[in-house]
Amino acid sequence: MRLKEVPKVNIAFLPTPLQKVERLCNKLGLKELFIKRDDQTGLALGGNKVRKLEYLMADALNQEADVIFTLGGPQSNHCRQTAAAARVCGLESVLIFGGQEIKDIQGNMVLDKLLNTKWHFSGELDREEKLKEVSKEYEAQGLRTYPIPLGGSNALGAMGYVEGGIELARQCQEQGVDPDYIFCATGSGGTQAGLILGTHLGGLRAKVIGISVSGTADDITEKVNNLLVELGARLDVDIKGLHNVIVYDEFVGEGYGRPTELSTQALKVCAQTEGIIIDPVYTAKGFAGLMGMIEDGRIDKESSIVFLHTGGMPALFADTDLYWKPEVEISK
Ligand SMILES: Cc1ncc(COP(=O)(O)O)c(C=O)c1O
User: Which residue from 74, 168, 237, 286 puts its CA 20 to 30 A from 113's CA?
Assistant: First the structure.
């Protein structure tokens, strides 16, 4: 099947802008820097998951689902965007959060509340087990459930980023840009896998570099490779030669969501040069990866670079001492 034949619902504002960021570019001493603004996909404050949900929700509607189930951390952007996608498709949603119940509702959870989704904490159980357990309760009431995996990262969800990669390639062509590298934050791997295939199909030669926000480079590389194989089979495209997946995991720091000095600097430098607000958990780590690799010489300053802004800003309004440190000054 070709991508155009795969059913999707139009719930994102597309295309998102490809923005030239000269002040930020000068600050980093680069030749050329662009930000692909997927924080501006529109739905419920936007972000990368909306592209994936265009395909996943179409499938849920085709299967006549009543309730969408998904899982993540309490500050999951994916959960928030899924709850909103369910609403705009006229469906209900249930979110499964890992760990013990949190009473202090901040950031993404405020929006989840506003969207009037239901959430359950998995407590001692594994999140997937809890999802199955709660799904059964809904099914017992005669409702049809539709599970979406962590980060929306199955092959169907990743198709959103095949489309995103093709869109980016077209914009590069229109703006006369031939990037050497495309940087993105990577977690469950669907964004990176789709982007690798999409930019390749769109004719870009750029290497896609995923900066891990939590997992090891080996684990994420395996996930991305598996998704590429599945995408190739489903879309009937040759993915030979796309197996050189690049993921770096050295910018994670103490762990998922834990700020590093470089990630806090990344947040501030984007805000203070361009007024662009990135997020503390994903894009700040991704941008820190770009900054770190320029600093240590792995990225030549003569390079042309696109950074994919995948959204996630609601976490700026949750537990600032946990996710980022407003008091840290950036180096001049
Ligand atoms: C803001 C943001 N950026 C990047 C990612 C990573 O995307 P993926 O899970 O497709 O690797 C996520 C995933 O939750 C996210 O919320």
Answer: 286
Q: What is the pLDDT of residues 79-138, one digit of tens each?
A: 999 999 999 999 999 999 999 999 999 999 999 999 999 999 999 999 999 999 999 999
Residue 8 tokens, joined: 């999707």
Strand 181-186 to 304-309 pairing = parallel
Biggest distance spanned by C-alpha atoms of the chain: 61
25 and 53 in a single domain? The answer is: no
* Whether the CB of 310 sits within 6 Å of ligand 1: yes
Upstream peptide bond of 314 is cis (omega within 30 degrees of 0): no
Do 115 and 158 sit in the same domain of this protein? no
Selected catalytic residue, list 76, 135, 188, 263: 76
Our answer on whether the CB atom of 130 is closer than 6 Å to any ligand 1 atom is: no
**Amino acid identity, position 262:** L
Residue after which a domain boundary falls, among 152, 177, 209:
152
CATH number at residue 177: 3.40.50.1100
- What span, in angstroms and rounded, lies between the C-alpha atoms of 321 and 103? 17
76 catalytic? Reply is yes
Angle between helices 49-62 and 77-88 (to 10 degrees): 40
Which amino acid is residue 106, in one-letter code?
A: Q
CB of 282 within 6 A of ligand 1: the answer is yes
Task: Give the closest residue to 70 by CA, choosing from 142, 115, 132, 27.
Answer: 132
Q: Scanning the structure block, which residue is given the tokens 């609403």?
A: 87
Q: What would the two tokens of residue 237 be?
A: 């495209």
pLDDT digits (tens, 9 = 90+) for 192-219: 999 999 999 999 999 999 999 999 999 9
Angle, CA 209 vertex, CA 289 and CA 234 arms, to 5°:
145
d(CA 46, CA 61): 21
Strand partners, 212: 186
Q: What is the pTM of this model?
A: 0.97
